[in-house]
Amino acid sequence: METKPNSHNPRTEKQQAQRVQLTNLVMTYQMLSSFIRGAYSSKPKNLSDYNMFIKENLSRIKVYLNKTEASQKGCIVAPYNISEGKLPSIETIVQGDVLRTSLRVPRSFQITDETTVEEVSMALLQANPQLQKEDQISILHLVQHMPSSSDKGVPYITWKQYDFILDTGSYSAIRFKFYENVPKSLFRVNEGHIQTEAGIETGGIAYVLIRETGHKVQISTQSIVLTPDNDVYKEYSSEEKKKEAARSYTVAAKKKTVTPKKAVNPKNEYLHGFISRSKETFSMKKILIALVFIFGITIVAQNNTVEQEKTYTQREVDLMMQVQELEQKVIKMQQEIQYFQQEIELWKVEFNTETQKHGDLNS
Questions:
Q1: Residue 178's closest CA among 238, 118, 219?
Q2: Is the pLDDT of residue 149 over 60?
Q3: Residue 53 and which of 63, 111, 166, 359 are 20 to 30 A apart at CA?
């Protein structure tokens, strides 16, 4: 049979690009799922936190892992959106070699090793009108790890979450020192602003405001902000990395026939097999019917030749009854095949609809 090589398929290339981009998103979600679950308080009810996370980031943030990196669960710190709510956002920007937030304290206030949780809480409440007592500030610190030149490993992430509540009256707030729970490097005071220290570990940070009101939890809209020295994300979001990742998923071109076998949706595999088997049975029965019919005609012809008025024998009657029964079975089988074909078409429409919905969520 004549063969020809695979033709250029732009749609497949687009799917490959989306696939390698989705890998890092999924790994990040799996890692941060304990925080992200419940972090989208304003999401539609029909969307899960996972779907919301994918929806918010898939078309906005590009990270491309090749097949080896993906199979070994590699992960890159990226400026993904990790929460969405109605509370005021804590703005975080790169300023020189530090990350500075919009959280303020009185200019004369400093945090030392002896400063208590109560004192920090009072300073923050005094300088930030948007904050309230019992609000929680969560700090997510993601650290990027890269393999050495001699190491065959892949890039990966570790992370920690630090939480503290703006508590001005409890015994623990008075007693416990602030830096016992929150690293100095992530919460320093400089000219009345809260910022990081210079030279913190490469990766990304997010400061999130959380407030519990009754049985509901409100949250600020936040994204991960990359550290000033983070060049890894830039590398893994580049066009060169995109091409490299796509190539790693490309299977060597194989020749295929001019009339390739159509792929069968696993959902319809059983029915496809049933119809194939039914067609084979149908063909065999057609042959059997034809033989019986010919045999019957031959007997009738012989009887007519010998004696026009001769009646049929019991054997001849039985054979003709069998032919009629087989014809009825064939008609019934044809109806069943037609019914299952209609079911397959309906399932195809349903499957395409669900695929389109999923595509809309990812767009």
A1: 118
A2: yes
A3: 166
Which helix H or strand E contains 138, and what residues bound it?
strand 136-145
Return the higher-pLDDT residue of 355 and 243.
Answer: 243
Q: Hey, is 264 helix, strand or coil?
A: coil
pLDDT in tens, 210-243: 999 888 999 999 999 999 999 999 999 999 998 8
pLDDT at position 317: 55
Strands 81-83 and 222-223: antiparallel
DSSP 34-100: HHHTT-BTTS-TTS-HHHHHHHHHTTT------HHHHHTT-------EEEB-SBPP--EEEETTEEE
Task: State which amino acid sits at residue 114.
Answer: E
Query: What is the pLDDT, as a whole number, of residue 145?
Result: 96
Q: Cα(119)–Cα(193) distance, rounded to whole angstroms?
A: 16
User: Structure tokens of 104?
Assistant: 């303020």
How many Cβ atoms sit within 10 Å of the Cβ of residue 260?
Answer: 7
Q: How far apart are CA 188 and CA 111, in angstroms?
A: 7
Measured in degrees and rounded to the nearest 5, phi and psi for residue 134 equal 75, 0
Strand-pairing partners, residue 158, are 143
d(CA 68, CA 47): 31
Confidence (pTM): 0.66
* 19 in Cβ contact with 70 (< 8 Å): no
| Continuous segment of H or E residues that includes residue 160 | strand 156-165
